[in-house]
Amino acid sequence: MINSRSERFIMHATEAIIGELQAGPNKLTEAFIPPRVRTKATMACDMSDSRIAAAYEAIQHAASSTDWFVLGYRDSRDKLELYASGAAPTSELVRELESTRAQEVHFGLLRLENKLILFTYLPDDISGVKRARALVHSRAIATTFRAHQAVMTVHDLSNFDQIARSKLRLDGSTTPSMPLNGSPRFTSEREPSPRLANGEGRASPHFVAPMPAQATTPIVSVSSASPASTSQLPALPRSNDSSQRTSLEQSPLSPALGYASAQSVASKTTSPQPSDSPGTGSAVPRTPQMSASPTGRDFSLPRRTSASPRQIYSSPVLNGFGNDQLDRTAMIRKSSLRRDGPGKQYPQQPRSPSQRKLNDSMPAAIGVVGLGLGNGLESISLEDQRAREAERAEAEGLARARWDAEATERQRLDEAEQLRLQQDEMLRRRASERLHREEARRLRQAELDRQMEEARVAQEREENLRADSNREREEREAEASRMAQARQEQKRLAKQSAIEQVVKRARELREPASTILSGYVTAQPRNATLWKRRWFELKPAALLLFKDDAPTSKALETIPLSASNFRRILLDPEDIAIVNSFRLDLYDDPEPYLFYCDESDDRELLVLALKSVCGH
């Protein structure tokens, strides 16, 4: 299992820590999984698919039609396969990522303006194990596809093209990416730390600096034996003062001691002065050359039997020694300024008790030497050696403490700068995500407004069409009603005219054989339950019923009609319950006559004709 701490380790681990993934996946797993949850895992990445190599070879050529390709696991844990490849634009790549498995990690290369960017698509809802495996495999893929200029990891495909162009600096952006190593306030080239007394060097944990070889300072001792005159002094080997001074000034162990030795050598280059001693009659030279060999530490100087105080003070040993001791504080400060630069100021170092004691005893020591006591001069040299060693140890301790303090301060500043950069990157990322969310919300709102506007326009169009349809229907109905009324009026007028003609003929015709009205009617014969369709002819004195309208037909029934015999005509009687029916009652016949017509107009015309014949 891989926890969140292991995932962070994988994200921030370097190639040196992770190592070769193909060689030892178990070693990588044991590097970041705690012992109590350590299990056997395989994090290797298999890219043996030959199509992957062909796609990678094609995308590196500008003349190729391959501008992107996508890799995925399909149904495997660690074997990658080529899903698809194609040419520009980027929208085709985004559609390919959306059309493939949405819950799967994808890798790929994209070429924009002859620049390659390696991308990893991690959906938000994948598990932590898949996310950790994808992070490890992305490093192996980046090691295999070395031709890319940028790397990006995306979780949302809405701004894929914009993020890729920003990573490749194709959108006019000039903001550098966050540094991977160290702080931009300090460079990797730093001055080395001073060596310790045992020869070991101290350095900052941020780098390994080369340490110069340890330089030694020659120590001059005075022998107890003294020759009789200055002419018996042995000739010392000459050396280059400038090279000696340069080597001493550049000593990394004790800058103050090196500077003091250089000043001592420089003081010995002054011109000699004649001696004031009347006994010798010759001048004592003040510029004997002394070797600064790092291997030799004991130089013998023959002691004279007698010398004046001026000769002793002007001797090469005491002249360099006195100047060195009197200006030691100034030399330490000057050496510190030369090493640390003009920007740093340090307080003046107080003189040590041995230095003050030595400076106070200078006249007495000179007097003793003037009297020819070699033991006193030897004790002064030993005391000078101890003072030099103490001063050197003190200077080295101060330098080490100052260097440790500066290293600690630099580390603190590096950590603060790294934290500030991480916070700035986090704020920038949050601002970018907020802008992306606002842009997505704005796009969704614009899409919603567009859909609402389209729905409103469609509704208005539908309402207008419905209103037009209703208006046309109403107009058609009104026209139909008007035409129906016109037809009814025509029928009414025609019926009225027919009735008037029938009545007129009934009144004018008095002959029994003349026919006033004829047609078909359905009648119920006497003592029968069935209805029969009959042809009728209305005469001035009777109603004749025939089987049909043939001229040769004989009347089946004759109903006499007169004013005295007519009783009434009842329309739609209850005992019949047939539409357009009527009943004829006569006084002479107790049984009524039942009839019905096909149309109401026919019934109305027949009833009016019967009433006219009967005088009603």
Features:
seven-stranded antiparallel beta sheet, alpha+beta, Severin, PH-domain like, 46% helix, 616 residues, five-stranded mixed beta sheet
Q: Order of strands side by side in the largest beta sheet?
A: 9-8-7-6-12-11-10
CATH domain class of the domain at 50-168: Alpha Beta
What is the N-to-C succession of helices and strands? HHHHEEHEEHEHHHHHHHHHEEEEEEEH
Number of strands: 12
- Determine the CATH superfamily of the domain at 50-168: Severin
SS strand fraction? 5-15%
Distance between the termini: 117 Å
Q: Biggest sheet, open or closed, and with what strands and sense?
A: 7 strands, antiparallel
Q: Per the principal axes of the C-alpha atoms, what is the gross shape?
A: rod-shaped
Average pLDDT taken over every residue: 71
Name given to the CATH architecture of the domain at 50-168? 3-Layer(aba) Sandwich
Weakly predicted, low-confidence segments: 14-41, 175-326, 340-349, 363-372
Computed Rg: 65 Å
* Percent in helix: 40-55%
Instruction: Tally the helices.
Output: 16
CATH topology of the domain at 50-168: Severin
> Structural class, from secondary structure content?
alpha+beta
Would you give an account of this structure?
- The chain is of the alpha+beta class and 616 residues long.
- Among the domains are: 119 residues, Severin; 97 residues; 110 residues, PH-domain like.
- The strands form 2 sheets. The chain has a 7-stranded antiparallel β-sheet, with helices on one face. A 5-stranded mixed β-sheet has the order 2-1-3-4-5, with helices on both faces.
- A hairpin with an 8-residue loop joins strand 8 and strand 9.
- It is rod-shaped, with a radius of gyration of 65 Å.
- About 32% of the residues have low confidence.
